[in-house]
């Protein structure tokens, strides 16, 4: 120890004084936060940014730390979340249309296996709590995929007759889709031509799914089979609905907000 102190150019008395000192409360607290962040960062495979991490830490430690404090500690630890590329923000022209009371939105997104084969996923998001209330996968992007997703959502939500919003894909403009919606007393809403912003909530969900899960796997080992991809995305949707807190929901998960409302 004497040699180490000599190399460091400090006295032994100074070393032992430092060792025996009582750590300030804030320092101890920051160390606890850092340990919690490290555990959650590993558990969620580097996905959480400081906003999501703040909610996760506060849940685990039963505290109410600020976003700035979590951000500062994550920067010290050099922990960075996976992020999506930022898109250019354009100013909206006057005459912007806002649809009223849209309770559900439906959309289809494409995924690929390692061999290049395409898999399609159709999902319905509830705008009340941002939860995914139904989703289905298929090798083919057709009417059957849309109908099965709609029927699944209706089966799991007996008595519901919401307004459902979609893009203007051929599946949603088909006679079969209109007939199915009418049979269940559902009102159909569609985005305006060339106005992808109307599909924002659904696009946002698919963006999260692909950034936080799909692209991470695809960049590493990739998806070998249809069932592997389906199982993995099913797991993410369960996480999204039940465990992923959202700022827009005041730090609650979609199903937590739903349970409170019920």
From TrEMBL:
One of its GO terms (molecular function) is nucleic acid binding. Residues 89-262 form the Integrase catalytic domain. It holds the Pfam family HTH_21. GO terms for biological process: DNA integration. Involved in the transposition of the insertion sequence. This is Transposase InsO and inactivated derivatives. It comes from Aliicoccus persicus.
